[in-house]
Amino acid sequence: MELIMASSLTGFRELVGELGGDGDALLRDSGIRPEDSGRTDVFVSLRSAVNAAERAASATGAADFGRQLALRQTMDVLGPVGVAARTAATVAEVFRIFDKFVAAYSPGIAIDVRSGFVDWTLRLDPLPAHPQTVELSLGLILGVLRRFLGADYAPAEIHIPHRRLTSEADYRRYYGCALRDEAAESGFRIDPADLARPVHRDALAHHYLTGYLDESLAGREVSAVRSVADIVGRMLPSGVVTVEFIAQHFGMHPKALQRRLAAEGTTFAAVVDGVRRVTAERYLRDTEMSLLHLSRHLGYAEQGVLTRACRRWFGATPLAYRRTLREEI
User: Fold this and answer.
1) DSSP 100-165
2) In the 8-state DSSP scheme, what is residue 287?
């Protein structure tokens, strides 16, 4: 049930367009609203984001799509985690901040720094093929290294778990170092002396930002209800809100998803019904949307289903409830 900040898709639509593809269509087909891409206040399915990157490479014929996309991103895509990293005392501490707080960006990603190696891991089960996501992420890490160590900095070696997608010369030109493909891990081998190099530190900002992230993540678990409700809300207008379809977004068996929801005291049907209720109330109160349009927006086949639902939720027809809401304003 892993999500990722939608800022991870910064530059996606523009790059796909420049390569002759339709970025909006690729995002929609992956279950992501195009207008959400690039936002730090919205989270999307991590599996869907991975799928979008892999499909974009195939659709555009750009084997180096992940590397190209990384050139359009900075550590700002990490949101508050990226801001906190700027306050570190050394390059190694930058990555320790990433390691400790990356869950605020995506709980499905792990970044580890050890003696002479910075490691990146995607935590999805089952794990999909994700070479573009690997190369995008390593390109972003390279950008972080060059931010603190200079624009010409080159690691000692890059490791990727898949077979190289283009020539070794391409990788050397991009990353500035030797390539080890089909490796056991994803990451960079780095001189320990480079990791120990000091960077400008704002001690006060460091204290407040890491404290904020500590509080944000303290005891936090990814809520199945919240994650499902988020995806359901986006998919309602399509009418595709079956447990099978939503489970597929999270790479889970439908029964496993139902068990997760049951552990939080609810069911898939109850989550869908709750999302529809909240959405209906908001549109009845705040807009002049027609009832036919609202019915379709909620994924109902006909307006009569909306009428029956409103009687159950609010004890009144949609129009009567809209009048009541307006009188309360």
Assistant:
1) HHGGGT-TTEEEEEETTEEEEEE--SSPPP-HHHHHHHHHHHHHHHHHHH-TT---SEEE-SS--S
2) -
Find the range with the poorest average confidence among 84-98, 126-140, 144-158, 165-179: 84-98
Instruction: Please give the structure tokens belonging to residue 268.
Output: 């898939």
- Characterize the bridge pairing of strands 43-45 and 3-5: antiparallel
pLDDT, mean of residues 198-222: 64
Q: Where are the alpha helices (DSSP H) in the chain?
A: 12-18, 23-29, 46-60, 65-70, 80-85, 91-101, 131-149, 168-175, 192-195, 203-217, 224-235, 243-249, 254-263, 268-286, 291-297, 303-314, 318-328
Determine if residue 17 is left, alpha or beta; phi over 0 gives left, psi from -120 to 50 gives alpha, anything else beta: alpha
DSSP class per residue in 245-266 = HHHHHTT--HHHHHHHHHHTT-
pTM: 0.68
Euclidean distance between CA atoms 186 and 189, whole angstroms = 10
Cβ–Cβ < 8 Å for 95, 113:
yes
Output the six-digit token pair for 110. 């792990």
- Give the architecture-level CATH label for domain 224-328: Orthogonal Bundle (1.10)
- Residue boundaries of the structural domains of the chain: 63-217, 224-328
